[in-house]
Amino acid sequence: MDKMTFENHYMKQFDEELEEIRTRLMEMGGKVEQQLQNAIRAIGEADSKLAEEVIKEEQLVDNMEVDIDEACILIIARRQPAASDLRLVMMVTKAVNDLERIGDEAKKIANHALILANESGSSKGYTEVRHLGQSVISMLSNALDAFARFDVDAAMRTIEEDKQIDQEYKTALRELATYMMEDPRSISRVMNVLWVVRSLERIGDHAKNLCEQIVFVVKGKDIRHQK
Amino acid sequence: MDKMTFENHYMKQFDEELEEIRTRLMEMGGKVEQQLQNAIRAIGEADSKLAEEVIKEEQLVDNMEVDIDEACILIIARRQPAASDLRLVMMVTKAVNDLERIGDEAKKIANHALILANESGSSKGYTEVRHLGQSVISMLSNALDAFARFDVDAAMRTIEEDKQIDQEYKTALRELATYMMEDPRSISRVMNVLWVVRSLERIGDHAKNLCEQIVFVVKGKDIRHQK
Fold first, then answer.
1. CATH 3.40.50.2300 fits B8-219, yes or no
2. What is the tens place of the pLDDT at every residue in B13-43?
3. Check: CATH 3.40.50.720 for A3-219?
């Protein structure tokens, strides 16, 4: 192989490796998206089997995080990427962390779904979970789409959705507090719903982080913590 | 400069750069530790001025995260570290994220301290906050000590502390639910305490993450998600 061919070959391999971690990150994103949808459905339909499935499958998401992280370190060590390639790899190590935490929150939601399904009782607060859940699923899906296309505009629009989610979250909290005051016997049950709502709000934050990372890779600009 | 001298010089500079990001991470750790202590004190002493200070200073912690992260990327791009040096830099980018989130939770605690201080009322749940707060402060302090000395044994011991914290957290939740049932008029007040207790539990998780990262740097072994 002459030098030129070797370099071309080397670059091609490098591009393929970068593409591969991106693909694996997208797969992980798809997995946590599904986990979230199932966890929310398990509440509404009191489906303890589905909830148990979400809980069991969290391990898959955890493994994905560790594997992708390892692949990133290998790429940096072997390929010594610079500029936007390096930003991409660094971004992936941050993004897997956010995805893993979304998976973790989905598992927490599934745990509460299990408790709620096993003790029959009122479905007070379920409407709030459904509404907020829909907004959060949609935000996460938009964040992953923006990621797949490295679309900065879509990422910026998705970041804005988090404000709406925070509003819906606050409204839900007020409703839940009212349910507890109206019927103190329902407190322990409503507290389960409260943690679900909290997890949904946290997932919105992680989806926002993902979008900020897209902007960082494409623009090289760190927009975290800007008010 | 002959080649040998140049290489020595180069390595010395590199070591200094690594040492510098480590020092900056420790400074950031000291800052969030202080933020946490002040936030908890602000609740017990109904000190709204102290709470406001914590809220204002979160910006400092945010800036530290962005700056240290940037320094890490620069080091990778310029120095192309390998093996344990690379692991150290990658670990720092994860650790700043955990520290920033601890700062964020401290700010949330301070926000609730402000609400609790401004509306006078019972101090139901304050004992739970004090107990759990002490455990979490101690765990974070141990995690930072283990980090300063790259002490794997201390890190492993500190990881174990998280179990104790989870137990105390669950006990506190039960107590808080009882307070709400006994006196439904106190619900909105106790909910503020509830979020504080939740934030403390989260901080325990982040301190655990820090310890796992110490093991990763020193041993090259990823122990996250091991049951």
1. no
2. 888 998 999 999 999 999 999 999 999 999 9
3. no
